[in-house]
Amino acid sequence: MVATSFDYQKATSVEQAISLLQSHDGDAKLLAGGHSLIPTMKLRLNSPALLIDVSKIEELRGIREEDGHIVIGAMTTHYEIASSDLLAKKAPMFVEAAKVIGDIQVRNKGTIGGSLAHADPAADWPAVVIASGAKIKIHGPDGARTVDADDFFTGFYTTAVGENDVLTSIHVPVPPKGSKSTYAKFPQPASRYALVGCAVQLTMDGNKVSDCSIGFTGVSDAAFRDSNAEAALKGKELSGESIQAAADACADGVDIMSDHFASEDYRKHLAGVFLKRALENLK
After folding, report:
1. Least crowded by CB within 10 Å, which of 2, 165, 175, 193?
2. What angle in degrees, to the nearest 10, is found between the helix axes of 264-282 and 240-249?
3. Is the torsion defined by CA of 219, 93, 83, 55 positive or negative?
4. How far apart are CA 77 and CA 142, in angstroms?
5. 184-204 pLDDT, tens per residue?
C-alpha cells in the first residue's frame, strides 16, 4: 500500500523540531530510523501531515561517558551500540541487546531513541533501560526534563514523551564495582521482536547479591521492572536455589499478554525460563 500525501522537512536542531511539532498541532511525526512509522503510514494506520526528519541532528548522536553516566544520543543506531567498546566494558547488556535486534539492515538504520519513543511492548530496549536504572532526557516547549526509565513506559505504545516533545538522550549510570549485566530473549522467528526479553543487572558483594534490577519486555502491554524477582535474589548467593526462587516469583501480579504468538500461560513460563538463563549467564 501507499501512504497518504504528506510534507517532509529535515530539522537541523532539536529546537526547530519542537517548533515544527507545535506548529502542526498534533499532525506531525518525528522520523528517526522509520522502521515502525513508515509501515504504519503505508497501511494508513498513521497519516501525519508532516514528517520531521531528525536523523541529521548531530547533538542527538553518539555514546560518551559524562559525570558518572554513559550518555547515548537518541539517534544512535543499534549497530553503533553493538559496536561500542565503552558499553561492552561498562554496560554489556546494551551490546548484547543491540546484537539481537532485527537483522543487519534494521541495526544499521534503527535508533534507540526511536524504539523507546515508539514503545512497542515487544521491543528490546525498554527492558534494558529499566534494568540499567537509566534516565531518559526529553526536550519540549518548556525546556528539558528527565524521566526515570521505570516511569517512562506508561501503557500500550505510550510513554512520557508528549505531543510536542523530542526524546534526546539516554543517561545510564555507570554500574558500581562488582556489577555485571546481561540480556536474554526468546525472539519471534519472523520479526525478531521479543516474545519475552529479560535484562538483568547485578551488583555482588563477595558471593552475595547486594543489589539487582530486572526488566522484562514482551510479557505485558508495557515493559516493567520485576521487584518480586529482585527481592528473591537480594542478599542471597547466586545459586540454583535463589535463581529458581526468582524465576518462580517473576511476573507475579502482572497483566500478561495473550495473542496468536503466545498464550498468557506460555508467556509466564517463558519469563521464568529466560530469567533463569540470564541469571545463569551471570554466575
Report:
1. 2
2. 150
3. positive
4. 28
5. 999 999 889 999 999 999 999
Angle at 8 between CA 6 and CA 14, to 5 degrees: 130
Between CA 179 and CA 186, with CA 183 as vertex, the angle to 5 degrees is 160
CATH of 58-173, one of 3.40.50.2300, 3.40.470.10, 3.30.465.10, 3.90.980.10: 3.30.465.10
Which positions ≥6 away from 1 have C-beta within 8 Å? 42, 43, 44
Paired with 183 in beta bridges are 199
Helices H, strands E: what count in the chain? 12, 14
Query: Which phi-psi region, left, alpha or beta, contains residue 23 (left: φ > 0; alpha: ψ -120 to 50)?
Result: alpha
Return the pLDDT at 3.
Answer: 87
Question: To which residue does cell 537509566 refer?
Answer: 134
Inter-residue contact 217 to 197 (CB < 8 Å): yes
Listed in sequence order, the residues at least 6 apart from 4 whose beta carbon sits closer than 8 Å to its beta carbon are 41, 44, 47
Contact 155, 116 (CB under 8 A): no
With CA atoms as reference, report the closest residue to 265 among 274, 275, 256, 277: 256
Instruction: Evaluate if residue 17 carries a pLDDT over 80.
Output: yes
- Alpha-carbon Rg for the chain, nearest whole angstrom, is 19
For 46, which DSSP code? -
pLDDT surpassing 80 at residue 1: no
Distance between CA atoms of residues 73 and 262, nearest Å: 34
Distance, in Å, from the CA atom of 258 to the CA atom of 240, rounded to the nearest integer, reads 29
Phi first, then psi, for residue 272 (nearest 5°) are -65, -40
**Would you state the CATH architecture of domain 7-53?**
2-Layer Sandwich (3.30)
